[in-house]
Amino acid sequence: MILDLxxxxxxxxxxxxxxxxxxxxxxxxxxxxxxxxxxxxRQYDDESDYRALEDEFGLRILKGSEVETEYGHVLVFxxxxxxxxxxxxxxxxxxxxxVLEESGRCGAQAVPCHPGRPNVGLCAHxxxxxxxxxxxxxxVASGGSRAGEDxxxxxxxxxxxxxGVGGSDAHIVSHIGRCATRFPRxxxxxxxxxxxxxxxxxxxxxxx
Amino acid sequence: xMVEFGxxxxxxxxxxxxxxxxxTTEATRMDFWRxxxxxxxxxxxxxxxxxxxxxxxxGILAAAIHRFLPGSTIRKIDTIFRAPLLVxxxxxxxxxxxxxxxxxxxxxxDLTLVNEAGETPVLxxxxxxxxxxx
Amino acid sequence: xxxEELKTRFVGEEFDSxxxxxxxxxxxxxxxxxxxxxxxxxxxxxxxxxxxxTFMTRFHGRRTMPEEFPEEYxxxxxxxxxxxxxHAPIPVxxxxxxxxxxxxxxxxxxxxxxxxxxxxxMEYRNxxxxxxxxxxxxxxxxxxx
Lengths: 208, 134, 145
Known about the structure:
- The complex is a heterotrimer of chains A (208), B (134) and C (145).
- Chain A has 208 residues and is of the alpha/beta class.
- In chain A, 30% of the residues lie in helices and 25% in strands.
- Chain A is built from seven helices and nine strands, in the order E-H-E-H-E-E-H-H-E-H-E-H-E-E-H-E.
- Chain B has 134 residues and is an alpha+beta fold.
- Chain B has a domain at 8-15 and 53-129: Hotdog Thioesterase (Thiol Ester Dehydrase, Chain A, Roll).
- Chain B is built from four helices and five strands, in the order βααααββββ.
- The relative contact order of chain B is 0.24.
- Chain C has three helices and five strands; from the N terminus they run αβααββββ.
- Chain C has helices at 3-10, 24-34, 39-42, and strands at residues 14-21, 78-86, 95-110, 113-125, 131-142.
- A five-stranded antiparallel sheet of chain C has the order 1-3-4-5-2.
- In chain C, strand 4 and strand 5 (131-142) form a beta hairpin.
- The chains are: A alpha/beta (208), B alpha+beta (134), C alpha+beta (145).
- Chains in contact: A-B, A-C, B-C.
- The interface between B and C is medium-sized, with 35 and 30 residues.
């Protein structure tokens, strides 16, 4: 199963895409993904219900979040009430250690994203802040990367033996499906996604 | 409607120094070195070179819509300047129709200015009232 | 002054009102430089001739910020984007009234590190008070490390 793990809708302050339009785009352009995850900035969207769109377009639509830490931005999958009570998603200076630990404790999975990006990626902080404990997976293919940034992420993953996922970091409709993650199993919901990430065996894929 | 979901369009805008100078002097009176002097932009501004004014990039994207849909009326255009677009570069202005509202007669369009490296220093969206066929 | 204080004190308050003339030569040059080919914007003889829809982005009020706003707060800031809502055609040769306000202030992190965003809004009306154009200008300041 192939899921694009990193996308933003109009729920994010800088997102300009309707979720329905993402679905239409994927089908119109025959993008070979089975679904995507909405990772809105500094929040978890528990209001929206995308089940009707899932049925209409035959796509899996899951929800996560993208939070901000001193080591850069981090995707969190499997967000639940416990995790939302554990730290303030709206802060822009969360301790990475807290996000990693609490995600583990609450049955979620934290994945630092676009590690090669200046300031908001892990690579920029390793020299000054040291190697953080508890990172297991990072985003090695990002649709928002500039030249050299994904290569830096891949090198980091190899050096520290991190697993790698892919996501488009789409903010507009036509940017979805640029990068994704191929899993060796079916994923039905957010809990399944966390389980699949913990099991391993997945790989990042890129189409651009 | 004259437009369908997924329709794509593009054109090659002119961001050469003479055109940018004309924009900053004749059109807007904002003749700053960061727009019109590569050397000063590098030395004083720490930029890779002179940069295209953000409002010119936005104007280019609006022009791209009008080239694709002559007679249409832009109701809203929202652009994000993510990185410098360099003067004397060869960007491509692209648009993609991402939503069509037949009842309202409007279309939503993704807009990007893509540089030679395939990066997107400027992106945005627009809501356009599409001219109906006579 | 922190972001919350800036928000409480300044957001929503109209702090400037200035008249702007839509000069024919400026409007034509704006259209030409941007590559406009639609005669409504590029041909002054067209019956619906008007300035390009984003033309009002070129103006600023007499004051960029409210009088007591800590202006040094946004010295060295950069332009993060523009949003234009076109309410009506921009009449060439007309004088419009533009009022200014701070619409929002917030923080987030990006490629440039921790940043403060300020949304500066100008609303343009004709002499009859009818809305012509709303321009939001997103100013970004890098926070000190």
